[in-house]
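Write out this protein's structure.
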Amino acid sequence: MVTKAAEPMFEALCRERYGRLMALATMLAGPDEAPDLVHDAMVAVFARHRRFASLDAADAYVRKAIATRFVDRGRKSSRHDATVRRVAAQTPRAHSDRPAEPWPDLDAALQSLPPRERACVVLRFLDDMSVRDTAAALGLSEGAVKRYVSDGLSALNSRLGTDAQLDSSDRVSVTITRGQR
């Protein structure tokens, strides 16, 4: 399905950036849906006659496709939301082929957020994108991104027992208070 012209860039992206793409998709959709999300985005990007000036440009385009497909899935299917809630409520199972999740509480809390809030929070703080870049990646206004991030951060604070605050530089500092849940 990959065009001949795009094959070298596709192979380089898979070899050098696949892990980061999977991490982004996992934070958005969870470990069970992440491989499909990355696959769908890669197919959509590389099945067309696109040329990228650099690996970074291809990576950015695929990341945008992952985020967009995640939001579209949430918008199109109410069954998806029910599945996410059901999966988030389950205890993660140990798989020999999958590394242990570093922050299972964070993963479950992220899964409880609505798709757009989750996408904005993940892109802003876990993928370190600016408000402007997040807005461009999701096709939203900068004000909408700020609102979704604020709402998402508030919900995460409540769920995790943290006290993260947005400051004027648009960065978040997190203080975990043990024992409060």
